[in-house]
Specification:
Layout (H helix, E strand, L loop, with lengths): L18 E3 L8 H9 L10 E4 L1 H8 L10 E3 L7 E3 L2 E5 L11 E6 L4 E14 L10 E12 L5 E5 L7
Parallel strand pairs: 1-9, 2-5
Antiparallel strand pairs: 2-6, 3-4, 4-5, 6-9, 7-8
């Protein structure tokens, strides 16, 4: 998802014009979520969904609209059990939690992410190496790349401030 410098770019390629930066370094607002969703062109909205960390989802679960209704809804018909502004919410531990300079949510139609696999995944089962621990090891290799190919399809929400090291 987040990509790695000089390796798989992943969603790092989301452009500045498709980025919403929060006003706070510790929270997100309903308006910022709406702005993030609205960055994606209307014709790509039908296949769009949210990706965020479980802790971010939990913070968003507590947000309410002016009528006191929760913004994030438990929805048993949704692919991953929740909807936010009418779209499914997928949680990944690979996403950052809320913190200064962190990307906390992606939204969009992920067919805009081009993924190239140069060779098939090769795997080797390592039975002997871990036998004394009653375990089996698996060694796997894959050569691949991923990059944002259609910049109109994916947006992101970034927390204001610089990341601390």
């Amino acid at each position: 998802l987040n990509g790695t410098a000089n390796k798989i770019e992943g969603l790092r390629g989301v452009t500045a014009d498709m980025t919403v930066t929060s006003a706070s370094s510790t929270a997100v607002t309903v308006d910022e979520l709406m702005d993030t969703q609205d960055k994606v062109v209307d014709k790509y909205q039908s296949n769009s969904f949210w990706i965020m960390n479980r802790a971010t989802r939990n913070a968003i679960r507590k947000l309410k609209d002016r009528e006191g209704q929760y913004l994030l809804n438990r929805d048993l018909t949704a692919r991953w059990g929740y909807t936010l502004l009418g779209k499914d919410v997928y949680c990944s531990d690979a996403m950052d939690t809320i913190g200064a300079g962190k990307t906390v949510a992606f939204y969009g139609d992920y067919s805009g992410l081009a993924v190239k696999t140069s060779e098939d995944i090769s795997m080797q089962i390592l039975n002997e190496r871990y036998a004394e621990e009653h375990m089996t090891g698996v060694l796997a290799f894959v050569e691949m790349d991923a990059k944002v190919a259609d910049t109109q399809k994916i947006s992101k929400l970034v927390i204001t401030g610089s990341a601390s090291l």
